[in-house]
Write a structure and sequence with these properties.
single chain; 229 residues; alpha/beta; Rossmann fold; Arc Repressor Mutant, subunit A; 2 domains; 5-stranded parallel β-sheet; 4-stranded antiparallel β-sheet; 41% helix
Length: 229
């Protein structure tokens, strides 16, 4: 009997679908399959999966369009699995609402780990206002931050940035998304803003800012706040 949430796989390659089905079912997930964007959208509405694995190169419509249509009515985690691996494709998918992105060929264990991280993020988003990851504790209600149970003083902008990462913990946030959210749409090209403030934030929340373990860089794309037990 399955102990994991239902997963919907939207991919037109029969071999990939079969591999994903075996990998996911071995890990305890219930798997639903779709071979096109249209079928994937229909299945998502009917079976109500708790996470979706989506290919971008579908025969009837682009995966980004499928992603955008899904985001019109559902906030469930969506992980992109595609042969497209350029920074431009990854950023476009993340900006359209994807929770994570893996390039084909993929490693089964890494995929399962990414799925579980996305599910944990979704569950934590629905839970209380206190976030804990390793040594970091953030109380969103009282706007307090602690490292190893010691209070940390942040500037208003630093706190806004950290709270954005907390509310999206486990997700890759692109430079564009960060800049638009914190500084506004006119700053979306000013990547030095995000780099400077992430650097300042790391000095306050990381044990070793030069080798961050909590707020990690996704090269050329953005940053991710890691979920730690």
């Amino acid at each position: 009997m399955s102990t994991q949430p239902p997963v919907l796989v939207i991919d037109d390659e029969a071999q990939i679908r079969r591999l994903l089905q075996i990998t996911l079912e071995t890990a305890g997930f219930t798997v639903h399959l779709a071979v096109s964007g249209k079928e994937g959208l229909q299945q998502a509405a009917m079976v109500r999966p708790e996470i979706i694995i989506l290919d971008l190169g579908l025969p009837d419509m682009d995966g980004i369009e499928v992603l955008k249509q899904l985001r019109e009515w559902t906030a469930i985690p969506i992980v992109i699995l595609s042969v497209r691996s350029s920074e431009q494709d990854i950023v476009a998918a993340l900006d359209a609402g994807a929770d994570d992105y893996l390039a084909k060929p993929f490693r089964g264990r890494e995929l399962i780990a990414r799925i579980r991280t996305a599910l944990r993020h979704h569950q934590r988003t629905d839970q209380g206002s206190t976030f804990v990851s390793g040594s970091l504790t953030v109380d969103l209600t009282n706007r307090t931050v602690k490292i190893h149970d010691e209070a940390v003083k942040l500037t208003p902008t630093e706190y806004s940035l950290l709270s954005l990462f907390v509310r999206n913990a486990g997700k890759v946030l692109t430079h564009r998304f960060i800049l638009q959210t914190i500084w506004g749409p006119t700053f979306e090209g000013e990547t030095q803003y995000s780099r400077v403030y992430v650097g300042q934030l790391r000095k306050k929340i990381e044990d070793d800012p030069a080798h961050p373990k909590l707020l990690v860089t996704e090269s050329g794309i953005g940053y991710r706040l890691v979920l730690k037990e």
